Amino acid sequence: MAVITTIGAGMMGSGIAFPACTNGHTVRLVGTPLDDKIIKYGKETGYHLTLKHDVNGTQTSFKMPEGVSFHCYDEFSEMLKGADILLCGVSSFGLSWFCENIVPLIPEDLPVLSVTKGMIDDGTGTGHLISYPEYMQCFSKKKLNINAVGGPCTSYELADHDPTEVAFCGKDPETLKWLKSIYETDYYHISLSTDVRGVECAVALKNAYALAVSLAVGLSHKREGRDFQHYNSQAALFGQASKEMEKLLMLFGGRHESLWFGIGDLYVTVFGGRTRKIGTLLGEGLNYDEAMEKLKGVTLESIVITGRTADAVVRLSESGLADISEFPLLMHIRSLLSENAKVDIPWSDFETDYFQA
Amino acid sequence: MAVITTIGAGMMGSGIAFPACTNGHTVRLVGTPLDDKIIKYGKETGYHLTLKHDVNGTQTSFKMPEGVSFHCYDEFSEMLKGADILLCGVSSFGLSWFCENIVPLIPEDLPVLSVTKGMIDDGTGTGHLISYPEYMQCFSKKKLNINAVGGPCTSYELADHDPTEVAFCGKDPETLKWLKSIYETDYYHISLSTDVRGVECAVALKNAYALAVSLAVGLSHKREGRDFQHYNSQAALFGQASKEMEKLLMLFGGRHESLWFGIGDLYVTVFGGRTRKIGTLLGEGLNYDEAMEKLKGVTLESIVITGRTADAVVRLSESGLADISEFPLLMHIRSLLSENAKVDIPWSDFETDYFQA
Q1: Could you give the CA distance from residue A348 to residue B164 in angstroms, rounded to a whole number?
Q2: Interface pTM (ipTM) of the complex?
């Protein structure tokens, strides 16, 4: 049985403990310095402070499965001893902290599995983005074995054993197969891919586009003057989103086969949580500042990742490497987020003539 | 201003009158022999008997827009005089009737626009499917100009002016541009494509796969013992569906660019009506016979189209032209519909290893 040391006790870092424990493995859940409350609560009760599910209308904390122990950050070095896997469970906002404080401590022979999804500027000033695993490697002189998880999977539904299929991506097929043997259960199905850039890109992009599809929810609310949804407009935006995501995936050097994980992830994100909330508010006609005022205190990874992706496309287009007219939906989202523009879906720009002999 | 003679006064044939009338055109809504009640009701009230929307929780008939007149089938020949467009608004079940009774009457210079979506066996016994417009042409000695509509668009939301983007497909770009000039409004956006096979294939496939995604809704209901949805499993099925749809599109001779209309259409179909209902019942554990017993009297185009597509793939595989192991989700749906099997999502068959240097 494997010992998994997790750093970051947030929802996804904690949620992925469920399939590991279903298979009888041991998970040492180590909080970052920001996770003290979660760890304290977990030590005292065995329940998770923030990972919750709906039980007959009430949000109820999950009891963490047998095999999980809770640890504060000052125990991290101790907990690293004897670990077979280091699981990176920080959010995108914790990425720099993880790279600076944790990556240098990782032994060369300890495989890393990261649930932190995303892409970041490669620092060359050209607009090219690289995946988080590629970025993490830059902070170590050792040759690390960093793998990542992509695909449709919200933490609270994973903890609830709702079946899904995700992708584990990394450079070494043998490591991937071994990680799969640890995590695969009858509710957590795993494809494997060496296209790290593609899987991370596809699942990072869904943030921007889930926000875009959610605009239609807000537009319906506004038009109807009530909590009512139309699906034609959501569906048309979903189709346009899929089309732009494929182009972006190619642009950032991913492989086409990774698109399906991004499309699945887009679907689940449209129906989950905070990204939908801000998209709906923007769709109802609020500008970004007004929407954030309403969502006081909410941290939105999706906003950061969206801005980063859209900025990258603009910079690539300035070098002639991308054509921004191919990404009208992403550019509209960019104007909403960075220019405080009001929603005005550029429907006509989506229209395309496909004429061939 | 154009005169559009519509044959078939069902929901979609009638719904597409809305954008045409928004633009000031005239629509002669001619019922098939099965539409007498709709026509009688329309003549008496100006409202549509079956095209309804939710008004504060009550299903309420739409008033048909100014410019629409109602006609019984015996007026069809008269109504064809002076028409600029013949709109085919029959369902898949009316296709044979349309081909035998209407197609031979169509003048060579009268463009046809069809909202009837689908693919049908090409009659060669090999399993190859052709699009409805290709099939319709077989029933005329004249060279007809048959165009069709694909993409995400439910009739009642179109009548409700919810924005969407669809594809008009046909062989002649000039006809397509002219049809677009008739129908394009600020809530009905139109891309054009000469890939008739691809657009029709993509939107036909969504029937099978919307049923597949809906299985997850029923599975959640059953597991929870209440009306509660999980989205991880829906999303994973949606991703697998998109992947299989792309492969099928290529298999049946469509072009990749038509996929996005199918994905949008898949999304809207998951949330609309009868296909979701039967998928949910099958997901809850009923077999097909039990589910149909519950849905007494409901006609399901999706079932017909699903069976036809799945059978075609099996026949193509028998000739070595397709590999059924690439379509595990479609094959599971086939076993549910034609073998009365119980739901058992083949999750492991979705898993793929993408290893490349």
Answers
A1: 10
A2: 0.96
